[in-house]
Predict the structure.
Amino acid sequence: MPDQRDAEYLEYVRSAVPKLRRLAFVLTQDAHRGDDLVQNTLLKLFTRWGRARRVEDLDAYARKILVRMFLSDRRTGWAQRVQLFDDVPERPQPESDPSTRMVLSDALATLPPKQRATLVLRFYADLSVEQAATALGCPVGTVKSHTARGLAALRRALPDDASNQARS
């Protein structure tokens, strides 16, 4: 029989998994890899649940674990050795033009992991510069420079018509 601590964890996980899966998919560009990332995040969260359940913003704490695990995986080279393909997980909002979305997704995949993570946190997860810096474990200035460099790289990678649509 689960105790109160386990019940709190399960309640949090039920509410957080959809958000974590969407964020992980955007970061990894792969549903299977994203699910693995979420699973590892939840495992790490469980091992730290005694401390985690007392934090002020549990979503930010879980997001920070997820982003740091994503960046750590990218450094190990596992992401370059293994390629998995699948459908996109559930979407929380109406879709934009599919061709524009594909072009933007392809351009986002060309960015270095830290720039990609910064742009995803800032513009997909809608975090402030300070919140993104906390999730990434870096100074605010680093988030600002990664954002500027990442946006510039996206503008260079996108065709003129797609970049105009993406800005609107």
Observations:
- The chain has two domains: 1-84, 95-168.
